Structure formats: C-alpha cells, structure tokens
Amino acid sequence: MSNATQSQANMTTGPGLLERVMLSTLTTVPCYIFFHINVTMLFTLRSKLVFRETSRYVLLYNLLFADTVLMALSQILFIVSASRAYLTYPVCGLLVMIANLTNDISPLTLVVMSLERYVAVCYPLRHATIITIRNTGVAIIVVWAFCSLNVLTRVLLLLQFPFEQLESLQMKDFCGTLDMFLGPLSDDYDKAYTCFVFISASVAIISSYIGVIVAARSASTDKVSARKARNTLLLHLVQLGLSLSSTMHNSLLIAISKTVTSTVLEYILSVFYVFIIMLPRCLSSLIYGIRDQTIRPILLCYLCCGLKLSVVSVKAEVSP
Fold it and tell me: Which class for 151: exposed (0-12), middle (13-18), buried (19 or more C-beta within 10 A)?
C-alpha cells in the first residue's frame, strides 16, 4: 500500500509549494473522512456484546482493524512524500513492513469470511458448532501468523543487502515499497507471493460462491439466507479485486508517466491515491454499515452524534 508514495517520490519536478499544499489538503480531507468512518465502525463493533460474540462480526473487526492501520500508514507515507522529506532506511523499512503486514491481512480475512458464509448456508445445522468464537480466534491467529511469516521473509531478504557499503543510512529517495526491493530476489518474491495470495483467495471465494448457488437450489435451504450469502460473497470478490488493483497502482502510473508531464502526473497520482488506494479500505465499513440491519442503526447513531458534536464545537468557537 505504501506503493502509493513511490510514484510521487520519483518526481523531481512538478507543482510548486502552494499547489502541493492544496493537493495534499484535497487528498487528506477525504482520507480523513474514510478513516473516521472506519474508526467509528471499529468502535461500533466493540460497543455491543452481540458483535463481540458473533464470529462474522469478529472477522469483520479484524478486517477493518488491518485496513484502518494501513490507511493511517499510507497517509503518513503520502504526507511525508508530499512534503519532500527523506527518511532513514530503518524507519522506512519498519513502516513499509507494517504496511505490508496489514495489507496481506485483508485478502486472507476475506477468505475466512467467505468460508463462514459458505458453512452458514450449506451446513446450517452444524454452523454453531463449526464457527465458534474459539475457532474464529484460531483462524485470525493463523492469518496473522502466515502474514507475519511473509514479512519475516521479506526482512531476511532485505538484510542480504550490503548496507555497510552505503555512505549513510539516510535515504536519497522518498520512502516506498519499491525502495525496499534492494535486490532482484526481493522483487521476484513479492510478485510470486502476491500472485499466490490473490489466486488462492479468488479460488476460495469463487468456490464458496458456487457452493452457495448449488445449495440455494435445494428445497431445504433458506432462500433468503442463501441470497444474502451469495450477495455477500460477490461483494467479497469485488473487495478482493479492488485490493488487487492497488497492487497494480505503480505499473499503471509508470505507463501514464510516459505520456504526461510531471505536474499532470501528480494530479493523477492524488486522484488514484484517494480512489484506488484509500477508498477500497473504507468499503467494508460502508458495505456492512449500510447492509447489516444490526450494525446500521448503531453506526448511524455514532456518526450522527460525532457530526452534532463537531457542529456544536464550531458554534462554540465562533460565538463571542
């Protein structure tokens, strides 16, 4: 996800200081809104016992937590890049590795959520015994452990680079994921891992979708539940596709950079960053916040209360 900063990092010329400030402001405002929605959704999922003791809500919380951390890190890296600041290799490496960890959590959590819906429709009588809070916790631990192992592998590949030959650990370029590919092996590993994760996740979600469709034709299956599960799985597939599109962010910008000026490219980068990088990370909150009848009233209540408090505070500052 920190790839979003890399293309901007490659721009040595472009908009002036005032234009960069305006672009950063216009970018930060919608990102702050997305971040606020996600944080409110996280608070909502911890506010009621029913959310804390229902497996699908626990999985949703895990997905949103990873996405929210990733949003915060991406925005930090974007602001650092926009301000033309340079980090050291250890600091950049730490931020990038955390970003990679949380970025990997999303597709794997979507797979677990899809399997939970598959069991709910195809094995409704065994759902309560298979999908328990304990088993859900184990699944979340496995997801985090697998993603942590991937990050550890990246770190080991990174340590093979001869840092002692550098004059200084201060980076001469802006911090981004591509800056941490200090050898061809790191780049090859990243491509192989990304393909493996998204192909495996796609196969699992599509298989769950097909299983739900087949089960829906059975006379003993709840048609309403099957239809909702089918729509949910389709949304998971769309979310996975949006996550995949963010990994192609750099390649797309590199192709565009060959035909436009650096100023136009920076405008395009800002638009891509908001709609391809940040917006998909907020979709889970919007989708579940609107579709789920249990979450919707509580989420709207918290959002409206926050809006009212903001209006009241502004009025208090304006009033003499």
Answer: middle
Q: Helix 279-291 crosses helix 55-82 at what angle (to 10 degrees)?
A: 150
What angle do the packed helices 55-82 and 133-159 form, to 10 degrees?
30
Q: What is the DSSP string of 152-209?
A: HHHHHHHHTS-GGGSS-SB-SS---GGGG--SHHHHHHHHHHHHHHHHHHHHHHHHHH
Encoding tokens for residue 230?
């089918």
Collapsed DSSP state (helix, strand, coil) of residue 88: strand
Alpha-carbon distance of 170 to 90, in angstroms, equals: 9
Q: Which two tokens stand for residue 20?
A: 């960069």
As averages over each run of 10 residues, the pLDDT of the chain (320 residues) reads 43 55 76 86 88 90 92 84 78 84 88 88 85 93 94 82 68 67 72 85 87 74 72 80 69 70 73 77 79 82 64 38
Backbone angles phi, psi at 170, to 5 degrees: -70, 130
What pTM was estimated for this model as a whole?
Answer: 0.81
Per-position DSSP letters for 15-80, written without gaps between them: S-HHHHHHHHHHHHHHHHHHHHHHHHHHHHHTTSHHHHT-HHHHHHHHHHHHHHHHHHHHHHHHHH
Contact between residue 9 and residue 180 where contact means Cβ atoms under 8 Å apart:
no
**Number of residues in the chain:** 320
DSSP label at residue 144: H
